[in-house]
């Protein structure tokens, strides 16, 4: 019969999607734009407030004058969805790194056969890390309008929230692809 590929396709898919998910989730976690507030009462019409899980920034759209480290006068950081995101997003990032190290050990392209149980276990870790970042992202999105904001402002999801959501989904898909390695163990 024809020679088989050294590294199964599912493992390659997992090893491509998960680092991409890690980069998106890392960017979403660190950047201060989970939510944008614009058109606030008694404020210039071009002022946009950006709220992240670590920082608050304001930017004048006309002059691109951006100031971060704004005071949290409304108690935004004390809100439960923000606190949960502050705990789960870094935990997810650490777990993703751990899962990628284990996945690399399991896939090991330089040896004759990949270690399917190790790659499958890495898939479970990466699946869990994706879920850990998806939970706060979805909860924050659900509570987007309920979190404190300056009066009369128009609320919109920020790019950090979108990147975190996409990163979580890529990690989940990559983790699922790697867990398919268990199928090979069961066949033996």
Could you explain how this protein is built, in words?
It is a single chain. By secondary structure, the protein is of the alpha+beta class. The protein has a domain at 12-31 and 78-154 and 161-186: Up-down Bundle (Butyryl-CoA Dehydrogenase, subunit A, domain 3). The protein is built from 5 helices and 5 strands. The chain has helices at residues 9-30, 80-107, 116-142, 159-179, 181-187, and strands at 35-38, 47-51, 56-60, 65-68, 154-157. It has a 5-stranded antiparallel β-sheet with strand order 4-3-2-1-5. A hairpin with an 8-residue loop joins β1 (35-38) and β2. α1 (9-30) packs parallel to α3, α1 (9-30) runs antiparallel to α4 (159-179) and α3 runs antiparallel to α4. The longest helix is centred in the middle third of the chain and has 28 residues, at 80-107. It is elongated and about 65 Å long. It starts with 8 loop residues before the first helix and ends with a helix. The relative contact order is 0.24.
Write the layout of secondary structure elements.
Blueprint: H1 9-30, E1 35-38, E2 47-51, E3 56-60, E4 65-68, H2 80-107, H3 116-142, E5 154-157, H4 159-179, H5 181-187
Antiparallel strand pairs: 1-2, 1-5, 2-3, 3-4
Helix pairs in contact: 1-2, 1-3, 1-4, 2-3, 3-4, 3-5
Total helical elements:
5
CATH top level label of the domain at 12-31 and 78-154 and 161-186 = Mainly Alpha
CATH third-level topology of the domain at 12-31 and 78-154 and 161-186: Butyryl-CoA Dehydrogenase, subunit A, domain 3
Tell me what portion of residues adopts beta-strand conformation. 5-15%
Q: Main β-sheet, in a few words?
A: 5 strands, antiparallel
Percent helix:
55-70%
Distance between the termini: 18 Å
- Sheet/helix structural class: alpha+beta
| C-alpha geometry | elongated
Q: What is the number of strand segments?
A: 5
User: Do you know the CATH architecture of the domain at 12-31 and 78-154 and 161-186?
Assistant: Up-down Bundle
Instruction: Give the H and E element order.
Output: HEEEEHHEHH
Question: Which blocks of ≥5 consecutive residues have pLDDT under 50?
Answer: none
Mean pLDDT across every amino acid position:
92
Q: Can you list the strand order of the major beta sheet?
A: 4-3-2-1-5
Rounded to an integer in angstroms, the radius of gyration calculated over CA atoms is 21 Å
Determine the oligomeric state from the structure.
single chain
